[in-house]
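WARN no homologs supplied; continuing
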Amino acid sequence: MPCLSEVRNTSNNQVEDLRLIGRGRLGSAISVSKEEDFFRKLFREIQSSSKFLERQRHFENLERSLVSLASLSRGWDSYDSQPPSAAAVCSAVSFLRKLYDGPFLPSSVVPSAEGGVALYFLGGDRNAYIEFRNSGELVLALYDHETDPIVPELSSSDADEIRAIELLRNYLA
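OK structure emitted
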């Protein structure tokens, strides 16, 4: 394929001949480049607008945030609070994974001043959080701005985590 400088050094007739002869090759190289640009742009748009991919990115960010909480040191909040224990972080990650296929994910994850990890859920006028404490205690609070919070008694068992998911689903729906 001739380079641009070779095309410039030829006469007008030769340039026209090169265009006609190389139209298939040059034209396809140009159209392939345009197609690649088009598909790259389309892929970026799909990535940014796909609910599935958006949910996947949010889930991955939450999971990374949870794991990063394990590296906090004592006094992370300037009040001498305990950092989340490895067990609390693992429990929260396990719970988050149970939510993956469900209708909702937490909006954020934060360390708890009580020592542990809390996952916050926003659902319009209703909010909730579930806290995995270093002590092994599991705390769920369902609240809005008009009524007293609902704080069911839960243990850290899988059955109570499933119950917590149902309570969250019913409350935030």
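The two ends are 63 Å apart (CA to CA).
OK
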